[in-house]
Specification:
heterodimer, A: 73 residues, mainly alpha, 2 helices, 77% helix, elongated, B: 189 residues, Four Helix Bundle (Hemerythrin (Met), subunit A), 8 helices, 0% strand
Amino acid sequence: MTLVSDDVFRLFLTVLTGGFAGAWTIHDVVLIARLRGANRRDPLVRDKLFGCAMGIVIGMIGVIGTLRFNGVL
Amino acid sequence: MVSPWNPANAVTASRFLTLPLLWWAIDHGYHQYATLFILICGVLDKLDGLVARLFDCRSAFGEMFDAITDGLCYGCGLILVAAYGWAPVVPVVFVIGLGLINTGLRFVYIRRAGRTVNYKSYAMERIVAYTGYLIGFATGRMQVDFFYWAFVPVMLVIVMHDAKRMLVDPVPAGAAGMAGTAGTERGAR
């Protein structure tokens, strides 16, 4: 029992994962850039920097996985 | 004092309704339906914070309830996909084990803070979203091994980082405020 064709489902997964991961990566890169001049001794700033770095890693995993899913990598 | 019987917590609780549906779909081999149900669970996770702000019903209980619901829903989802052979068992065991360790550390942090504080970090916010996606990768048969094995080291690093903050670093005076700032969409509830 399916909701849509396999091709549409594949496209849906690609957009949902690749699109979100790509946007997430860009978002966290921008956040890190904005935090460049911030006081790194502040625990909140350090938490944000670490979170953004992890966000970029996770976003890249999402993009790479999506490319692999579509046979690009 | 906000009543625990509020619209935001109702939305959070409604996420549990997706679990039997997810189980039904996985049991019948309906990959697309299973993906739909875990997607609904994820959307409701984002929606509860919005409802909390809209109805101004934020509370420490709501924040904890949301975190517990995250753990139970995603934990059950991971167990289901692994049990039915849709996801590799070893990384799922790692993920659930690290999740349990993180939960234990949160209780230690609460004791250190001396009040109910839902520890949150920017990195943990991101890994929770990834966890929801993990179930979707299994139901959608999307690069399952790649995504599951890539998840393990990332989560390990984040849990280690947060363990230091929870166990070693001084608890900030406004612990709820500081830890809560990471979870802007629902963290302050």
